[in-house]
Amino acid sequence: MPRIGERARRVYRGEMTAAKYATSPAARWRHLERAHIVSQPDPWLHTCSHAAMLRLALRQHDRREAIGQVLRLMVAAPGSLTGRYPVGNTGRVTAGLMTPMPIPDDLAALTNR
Length: 113
Fold this sequence. Notes:
Number of domains: 1
Order of helices and strands: HHHHH
Protein name: DUF3703 domain-containing protein
């Protein structure tokens, strides 16, 4: 059962599409991070956001990020299902696995928290 609304789902898809077509790695990561924030309440989308981050980390040969994304892939769906995820966290290894972060203003209205 999806836990995000249709508007949040559209924003998620938009951010994932923007990440796919971004011209720089920094822009790709920024869009994936925003997609992650929106996706956190939904087990499937949350897992998909980490899968996309893992693919980018592997393309960039970033071993630390890739290992961190594998770990996050294992806990994404259970965290979403139980509501135990760090709200606003960008999903990157530099953010810390369970560190809550401020939600960008334009995304705050889309979250359940």
